[in-house]
Amino acid sequence: MKKNQLFIALFLTVCFSCLSLQAQEQEQEQFTGTVTYSITFPGMASNPMLEAVLPYSQIIVIGDNMCKTTQLSSSSTSIVFVDGEEGLLYIFISAMGQKYMAKEKIDKLTGDLSGNGDINTPNKTYENDIKEIAGYKCHKMDFLSKDSTEVIASGYYNEELYNSIYALTGQDGIKALPLEVSTDIPQLNAKMLMTATKVKKGKVKKSEFALPEGYTEVSMDALQNMGGGL
Question: Which domains does the chain have, with CATH numbers?
Answer without folding.
Answer: 2-112+119-225 (2.50.20.10)
